User: Fold these one by one.
Assistant:
Number 1:
Amino acid sequence: MSRTREGAGVPVPLLVPAALGVAFLVLPLLGLLVRTPWSELAGQLAEPAVGEALRLSLVSATLATALSLVLGVPLAWVLARSRARGRSVLRALVTVPLVLPPVVGGVALFLVLGRQGIVGSWLDDAFGITIPFTTAAVVIAETFVAMPFLVISVEGALRAADTRFEDVAATLGAGRWTTFRRVTLPLVAPGVAAGAVLCWARALGEFGATITFAGNFPGTTQTMPLAVYLALQRDPDAAIVLSVVLLAVSLATLLLLRDRWLGRTGAA
Amino acid sequence: MSLQASVGTRRGGLHLRVDVEVADGEVLALLGPNGAGKSTFVRVLAGLLRPDEGRVVVGGEVWDDGSTSRPAHRRALGMVFQDALLFPHLSVADNVAFGLRTRGTRRAEARAAAAGWLARVGLDGLGDRRPAELSGGQAQRAALARALVGDPALLLLDEPLSALDARTRLTVRAELRRHLAGFRGGTVLVTHDPVDAMALADRVVVLEEGRVVQAGTPVEVARRPRTDYVARLVGLSLLPGTGEGRSVRLDGGAAVAVAEEVTGPVFAAIRPESVALYATRPDGSTRNLWRERVVGATPHGATVRCELDGEVPLVADVTATSFAEMGLAPGAEVWAGVKASEVAVYAR
């Protein structure tokens, strides 16, 4: 693309709000970097509490992504390929967590899986398992909030994929499961990867459902976003450092997504 | 009989009703315009579409009997689609070996068989490439190897040459002919190109609006088309009428003199090169002479193909020189002459 003049062709009524929009999105992040106490950074990061929160965040977000892949990819296939009735209702239900305030999700999880909850009381009676306020609860809360991102992304990739390849596989003796494993999944791999990264990033930033359902216990349920919120009230500098770490992780994710997958999605 | 199929199904506005039989080693071409139901029919044969009614039997095994339908992956068939459709994430060799692997052949054995087939279709040494690195012709050859490698009982070719450019098409068509000659099972070739049908098929079935309108050897179909569609494909003017001795009274009212005695309902077919055009009424012995108006003209190599309308709708080929000399722009009035001996007549 060649541009002869700066901003050529963009009408002023669009250009001004667009520029304001960029400023609105970028300035707070710049402000965060400007206020970062870079000299104290190393010391803050060495704090055991920070390391613990970061480790817990990474582990729980990764587990939530793995769980989302195991449940979400088959769910996306059902939404994209099966001709069962009630599919649109199913899709609407699956996407509810996308628009639901995460706190409400946390309350709902608590009511079902809590010690007094419908499933939770049975788990407690039968196996002596309690879920709330454990790391498992963190993973469940994050999965609840983040899985729809994966499902939507993979379903979109499945719909965009050329189903004639599946016909070809069938004429070559591949049953539906073999076709899924050896043809469909490799074809939509870029979409699955992009969905997984989105899902992971969303899980990493999860706050509302986590604090409601899993609580805020350092070492077991206190993830980075929770630590940031708490630190902001006691020690703003620590909050800034934690925020910068999360920002760095997010940017790294974005770059990974762009270079490794998004660029290749079109070619696949 | 390798394939016996009697299929009826409705798809949208199309009501398909086709009965065909294909012997072992025989190539049957399914010729027809877009939307005639050709692809629907082969999809039924492949098991990718369940028919509403009918029966498909291949090599004595029932694939469809109206109530139960054997799924596509358990039918011993090979299929080539219009756009090769090689799996983009697999190498060319793995594409060719795919059918063997899904049917339980061990990896090394499947690889060897794939390499053998790649050599047979002239892709020796290209097995490690990705499909995207192949030309259109090479991809279609690989697709053919992939379809044939499992030694299927039935080979389905759905417009296998349509996506290729004219030159590649010629060479791939010639190779396909060679491979089909060596194939022991039955073949169903879907095409809308009469040249494919003539060059590759032992028998042609013409499908229009879901029905078989004509069946026969390629030569029969080309010489004696029974519908306007086929006549236009092979470049003939088809005139339905009634035989009255040595002339045919056309359904439109005009009479066409013919060389032999005919009676009853007949077709008169006239080839474009048999029609002579004159600016003024010619003298002489031409018995069929009609006043016509040029309604269309398209260049056709060194000649111009003129569509004529008048007492008798005709198509005439004239040289580009005479086209210019006679001033044959659309709208021009001309005389068209056809010798009685140049009119082919056959029963309707």
Note: Chain B is about 25% helix and 35% strand.
Number 2:
Amino acid sequence: MAQEIIEVPLTGKITSVEVKVGDKVKEGDVICFIESMKMENPILDPVDGTIVQINVTPEQIVKPGETIAIIEY
Amino acid sequence: MFGLFESGFQLFSWGNALMLLIGGALIYLGIAKKMEPLLLVPIGFGMLLVNLPLGGLMDYELQITNTTGVPAKVISIEVDETSKIGENDVILQLDSGEILAPIYGRIKQVGVSPGQEVAPGEVVATMITTAQTDQARLPTKPIGLLSRIFAYGIMWQVIPPLIFLCLGALTDFGPMIANPKTLLLGAAAQFGVYFAFFAALATNLFMPDGFTIAEAASIGIIGGAEGPTTIYVTSLLAPHIIGATAVACYTYMALVPIIQPPIIKLLTTKKERAIYMKPQMREVSPLEKIIFPLITAVIVILFVPMSAPLIGMFMVGNLFMTCGVTDRLSKTAQTTLIDILTIFLTLCIGATMTAGNFLQPKTLLVLFLGVVAFATATAAGVLMAKLMNLFSKQKINPMIGAAGVSAVPMAARVVQVMGQKVNPKNFLLMHAMGPNVAGAIGAAIAGGVFLGMVG
């Protein structure tokens, strides 16, 4: 199975995580929200698949390039 | 009778009623729809306050003199004290002619009596008006709470540049420094400013009483999508339309998520909107961030000196944030100072919108041309991005050009949302912030160019 790694696109704080490991997700579903520059930015899922790993928790400060989640499809 | 029975009702007009409704609508949009509440709530309330007659918050005193140029004898007094008068109503009959009211308002006091001789230039009456007059022709003295703040805060060009200082402390130029190409996008969006300027001038072709060059410049600058820049330029060039230009600018900034998407869609294909841009950008060093405001201030002010109050304050505010040793100043500018200035600015702007100032056919035209300015600015930014793609190997998503209209950070946010919709992998926010902040500089420069040209 192929894997899609969702990376942090910009420096900010994770405000909430909307999925858990094992969840089936569809393209466009919200994975989590990152607060940056006083805006809440949803991080969307790019593929239909299953969440196999989540590396962030709410309140965590994240930097670009870090892994948010891994999806198998 | 000693002012005891003097109520506002006798002077209340249908225009005031309409303005109360418009003010109420702005307050509603702010509170219920969360549309720019920090701006629209105080602007709306300011409008309410000045459309309640005799409240006096936005009153100016104007002295009426013998303008006939010769010594004359008063034949009759045509007005009652405290009565309402319109522009060109007769105040006094002199043997050498009539003295007309130069503006609408009410008479406070008539200082002469029939039979009296008056010398040329002698004061014959005092009027109270809420109009923003051309100070060179009709100098007024502010006597109300808000008219004083307006005169000494805005007309003296104190508050808008200070707001720019605060905005500087809130703006991260990092994305623009990391990708200087985006400067071009911010510059391209200023096309909207000049397009609206010429469109406003073109009203003279089919209207007997079209916009003057100074008014057209103030309307064009709405396309810069920067409230303080618009207010600054209008206060210097055409203060009588400041309410309309400020309201147009602030409302359209709030409406960016509605105005921009159809234009962006019209000018781009789905494939172009889906162009992926890597989220990581070059790390910008602290030293670059310190040098940037210094160099920008020096270069821009040397080229466009009239932009100095805006660009100078913008850059000093930015330096407070980036230099790392003035955190206290930067924090105050980002929070307390900008709030205080916003309260003064917005209440005053609301207060300029008395029925007499605002309910004119030209106001509607200003609002219309404001939308034109926003729309053409968006289009120019997108088209510039497409043009750049023709010549560069690494394609950019043309939507980020739309963020060049400024309206920080709403326009960048619109691009981010649209980009994610077409391609969930895409995260354009930081890429759009580059043209976005470049647009803010571009607007201030465009304002400076107008002031140099027309002022």
Note: Strands of chain A lie at 3-7, 12-17, 24-25, 30-36, 39-44, 49-54, 61-62, 67-72.
